[in-house]
Amino acid sequence: MAAISSTLPQSVLDKMNGTSTATKTSTDEAQDRFLKLLVTQMQNQDPLNPLDNAQVTSQLAQLSTVTGIDKLNSTLESLISNSTANNSLQSANLIGRGVLAQGNAISLAEEKGIMGVEFSGPVDAAQVIIKDASGNVVHTVDLGAQEAGPIPLLWDGSTTAGGKAADGNYTFEVKATLAGTPVATTPLQFGVVTAVTTNSDGAKLSVPGLGSLNPSSIRQVL
What's the pLDDT at 95? Predict the structure, then answer.
């Protein structure tokens, strides 16, 4: 019976020690190739016309530059990965929270409907016009003067005729002016964040009625 050897093959020892050539980074491989080429070049140089110091220094500088760029890329990839993870964790805090994002729909339930508007600049007159599914004006609200930025709005279901609108889905538009000149506005739709997903594009917020949103598209958290 053959004796059992206590000496493991070098390839196995390398793997156990984490020094297998398969574990070398692209930077290490590039350095090895460069140094082998440089040594070979120096060994086979013309004795009557040897490499001067400037040539050797230039080649070493090129190696240093390549190595530095590779390390910089690795650092950037790590920072991007960490940033994505942090954004996902922060976005997870929005689950169950009400948010406002671009959209012009409003849902009225139990005499309460939430919406919003974002003004691109200050205004001295603003008006919200609420319409039913047929496009008929149900109610008009004068907001007066407003500063630039987003504001939330609450509709109690009141109608221009003095009654109460039925629960359901409506749309709205906003008109604003400053000294008679129209000012750009963005209608904001209300929704509740129900889930957060992460993919190669980063974190996405699932908001029923608004769809899958980038965190940056949220204009206000309520």
Answer: 92
Does the domain formed by 98-221 have CATH 2.60.40.4070?
Answer: yes
151 CB-near residues (< 8 Å, 6+ apart): 116, 117, 118, 119
For 94, counting Cβ atoms within 10 Å of its Cβ (0-12 exposed, 13-18 middle, 19+ buried), the class is buried
For the sheet with 211-213, list strands across it.
195-199, 202-207, 211-213
Please, are residues 214 and 102 in contact by the beta-carbon 8 Å criterion? no
Structure tokens at 87: 């954004």
- Return the SS3 of 59: helix
131-140 pLDDT tens trace: 999 999 999 9
| Tokens 């008109």 -> residue | 175
Report, as an integer, the average pLDDT of 12-25.
49
Q: How far is it, in rounded angstroms, from Cα 207 to Cα 191?
A: 6
Choice among 28-42, 97-111, 158-172, 186-200 with the minimum mean pLDDT: 28-42
Q: Which residue has the tokens 């508007």?
A: 117
**Domain residues of the chain, as ranges?**
10-44+51-92, 98-221
- Mean pLDDT (the chain, rounded): 80
162: amino acid identity, one letter: G
Q: What is the mean pLDDT of residues 51-80?
A: 62
Which pairs from 39-43 meet CB under 8 Å and 24+ separation?
Answer: none
- Please report the pLDDT score of residue 197 as a whole number: 86
Find out whether 52 and 42 touch, Cβ atoms under 8 Å: no
